[in-house]
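Here comes just one.
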Amino acid sequence: MISMFANASLARRIEQADASLNAEVTQAARARLDPDRAIVEPIAGGLAVFMEQGSPYNKAVGLGFDGLPADGELTRLEAAFDERGTPLQFEICTLADPALVKALTHRGYLAVGFENVLGMRVASPARGADRIS
């Protein structure tokens, strides 16, 4: 078994994959939703996404690896989410720039939970992985 430790480069890739998933799901949902209300907007190397009220995809993700968001960007996105009746929430990777958490804290945001993402190196698909039994 090979041990794998996350570094900022790997964390950035995982965060970008998560941001891409959120964007793709929201883009696909536009067909059944009011497309003018959906938000898929780049912000500080990540994405802010709004699909519809109550969606778990409503959040900003992937920030903190390419600089900090400008105050004006945050103010505009907070207003856009507020217009949709949903608070802007952030998922911040623990390997992101700590200055991001400090900046968000100064704006009144609080850390309310933690999530761990585990990964493993995959050399090749497992035998029979393509079969359904």
The beta strands are 39-43, 46-50, 59-61, 90-91. The mean pLDDT is 86. The chain is about 35% helix and 10% strand. The first strand starts at residue 39 and ends at 43.
